[in-house]
Amino acid sequence: MTKLEERKNKVVEDFSLYDEWLDRYEYLIELGKALEPFPEEKKTEDRLIKGCQSRVWLDADVRDGRLWFTADSDAIITKGIISLLISVYSGLTPEEIAGDDFAFIGEIGLRENLSPTRANGLVSMIETIKEISAEAVSRKLGSRLRSK
Fold first, then answer.
1. CB count in 10 Å sphere of residue 95
2. In the chain, what are the domain boundaries?
3. What interhelical angle do 116-147 and 76-89 show, nearest 10?
4. Closest Cα partner for 85 from 26, 44, 35?
5. Quick check: pTM over 0.90?
6. pLDDT at residue 133 above 90?
7. Residue 19 to residues 12, 27, 33, 104: CA-CA distances in angstroms?
8. Which of 4, 86, 97, 135 could bridge to 69 as Cys pair (CB 3.0-4.6 Å)?
């Protein structure tokens, strides 16, 4: 089992511990509170995820061939959602992230249990993570092609 599969299975397992969505929201809030502090100077327009009702900032760095994400939001549940996503995908290769289907989100029923605006924001967060990973894959392929 890959690291990505292990992380996604852990999320599904963690969410299955709660019978009620109110408890799952509390869990998301706790995840948001545990998120590493995001530097104020990184809260810039270019890091804002478009399509979210709340303000969500996402930053990514490539180190040792892996993508490392940091994030923040001005809304507590949204902060928990982005925290959940980066806990699964941060530290993986761009190829692993770009090739993933994010199906665990459906398995835990997250999208269906969010308000329509938060559900749209979740989709925007996923799309942004996919775009960042696809860009990193393209840059890596481009550098390989140039070096031949």
1. 16
2. 3-147
3. 30
4. 35
5. yes
6. yes
7. 13, 12, 22, 17
8. 86
Question: Are 32 and 73 within 8 A, CB to CB?
Answer: yes
Give residue 142's pLDDT: 57
Which of helix, strand or coil describes residue 67? strand
Active site residue 52: yes
Is the pLDDT at 147 greater than 50? The verdict is no
DSSP string, 80-97: HHHHHHHHHHTTB-HHHH
Confidence of residue 141 (pLDDT cuts 50, 70, 90): low
- Count the Cβ atoms, other than its own, within 10 Å of residue 30: 12
Phi, psi of 80 (to 5 degrees): -65, -40
Fold of 3-147: Sufe protein. Chain: A (3.90.1010)
Q: Of 52, 86, 126, 136, which one is the catalytic site residue?
A: 52
